[in-house]
């Protein structure tokens, strides 16, 4: 066996659909910057039904996995240990394999949100608003639990979603007030607004951005900017985008999987920006 084969290390992102994922671009850029020539990072189309067999088929060369939808909760019963951050929202986006074959689950989305905001100077906020009530909204609440000293208002489309977000608030220790989506423009009075909705969902709200908006964290990165983010910037407000989140959570994944820190954030962001620009041509 050659030295290259002996030292080869593998990682990948799993999900369905997965073809759009920027994770390979970011992780490969990190490996290049860190001089990890024997490391590879791929993407695999894997759904919930195929996940157990995929994990069981991995060899000792595997260092870790990034997980996207719909696997973040499906993976939990298949792990040996789940960290407290991932437990808090019942979602794992990172799996690290130990030298003795154990599978460790973590969630880097939550600290990634906090780190992306801190990079722009938002380390504390007195209140906040969240648009949407899906899986990303629960991660946003968990991140806000770290930086928000007051109430978080969550704008939702149904009573069921409202009840769910109230439960998440109680679980995470965040005072949550829910409001109807029809009043979502009222969110813009908050110093920090986190938009967690799918593409197109906030487009109609762009015309309601106030004269002096605070900070908008829009978790989308493609297409970018969203109409809401563009209107926010035109009004002079600060915008944190989905690529910021993607890069910061990937930085933490690279550090956990490779054991090398700090991961090269600037190189990873530049690679992501280049890849997105190429897609937009």
Structure description:
- By secondary structure, the chain is α/β, with parallel strands linked by helices.
- The chain is 38% helix and 20% strand.
- It has ten helices and twelve strands.
- The strands form two sheets. A six-stranded mixed beta sheet has the order 2-1-3-5-6-4. Strands 9-8-7-10-11-12 form a six-stranded parallel beta sheet, with helices on both faces.
- α2 (23-34) crosses α9 (242-258), α2 (23-34) packs antiparallel against α10 and α9 crosses α10 (265-279).
In short:
With 281 residues, this protein is an alpha/beta fold. It is 38% helix and 20% strand.
Name a few traits of the molecule.
single chain, 20% strand, 281 residues, alpha/beta, 12 strands
Largest sheet: 6 strands, mixed
Main structural class: alpha/beta
Question: Number of DSSP helices?
Answer: 10
Percentage beta strand: 15-25%
List the helices and strands and how they pair.
Layout: H1 3-7, E1 9-15, H2 23-34, E2 39-45, H3 51-56, E3 62-67, E4 81-82, H4 84-89, E5 94-97, E6 103-106, H5 109-119, E7 128-131, H6 135-147, E8 152-156, H7 159-172, E9 176-180, E10 192-195, E11 215-218, H8 227-234, E12 238-240, H9 242-258, H10 265-279
Helix pairs in contact: 2-9, 2-10, 5-6, 5-9, 6-7, 9-10
């Amino acid at each position: 066996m050659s030295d290259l084969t002996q030292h080869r290390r593998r990682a990948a992102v799993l999900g369905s659909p997965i073809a759009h994922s920027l994770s390979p671009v970011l992780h490969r850029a990190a490996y290049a910057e860190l001089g990890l020539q024997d490391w590879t990072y791929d993407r695999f189309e894997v759904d919930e039904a195929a996940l157990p067999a995929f994990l069981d088929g991995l060899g000792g060369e595997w260092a870790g996995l990034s997980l996207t939808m719909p696997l973040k909760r499906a993976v939990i019963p298949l792990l040996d240990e789940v960290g407290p951050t991932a437990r808090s929202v019942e979602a794992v986006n990172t799996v690290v394999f130990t030298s003795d074959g154990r599978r460790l689950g973590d969630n880097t989305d939550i600290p990634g949100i906090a780190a992306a905001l801190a990079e722009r100077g938002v380390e504390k906020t007195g209140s906040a608003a969240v648009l949407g009530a899906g899986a990303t909204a629960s991660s946003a609440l968990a991140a806000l639990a770290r930086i928000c000293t007051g109430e978080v208002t969550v704008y939702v489309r149904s009573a069921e979603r409202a009840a769910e977000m109230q439960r998440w608030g109680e679980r995470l220790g965040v005072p949550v007030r829910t409001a109807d989506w029809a009043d979502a423009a009222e969110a813009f009075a908050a110093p920090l607004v986190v938009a967690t909705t799918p593409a197109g969902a906030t487009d109609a709200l762009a015309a309601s951005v106030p004269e002096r908006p605070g900070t908008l964290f829009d978790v989308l990165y493609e297409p970018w900017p969203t109409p809401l983010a563009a209107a926010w910037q035109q009004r002079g407000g600060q915008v944190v985008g989905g690529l910021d989140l993607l890069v910061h959570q990937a930085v933490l994944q690279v550090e956990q999987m490779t054991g090398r820190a700090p991961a090269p954030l600037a190189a990873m962001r530049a690679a992501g920006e280049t890849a997105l620009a190429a897609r937009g041509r």
